[in-house]
Amino acid sequence: MQEKESNTSSKQVSGDQDDDATLIGSCCAEQLPRLLEMMSSCDPEMRKCATMLIETLSRQDILNPLEAVSCMY
């Protein structure tokens, strides 16, 4: 019984976060050209953050990896 309650709570929390993640991910995907420019920045922290953001968007299937690669060449 206790396992069912915790399972339901975890599903509810997961479901609540999906909408927010999709909204933020879509906004970030719209700014892909700027993210790609940030990957060429002189600031190493900026490059690292931009790369990690593009990786996360790609892993969540919000961003097509071919879009990111085609802009780099």
What can you see in these coordinates?
- By secondary structure, this protein is an all-alpha fold.
- It has one domain.
- 82% of the residues lie in helices and 0% in strands.
- α2 packs across α3.
- The mean pLDDT is 75.
H-E string? HHHH
The number of helical elements comes to: 4
Distance between the termini: 56 Å
Main sheet specs:
none
Overall geometry: globular
Number of domains: 1
Tally of extended strands?
A: 0
Mean pLDDT: 75
In terms of structural class, how would the helical and strand content be classed?
A: mainly alpha
How much is the radius of gyration in Å?
A: 17 Å
List keywords for this structure.
73 residues, mainly alpha, 4 helices
Topology readout:
Elements: H1 2-30, H2 32-38, H3 44-59, H4 65-72
Summarize the structure.
With 73 residues, the chain is an all-alpha fold.
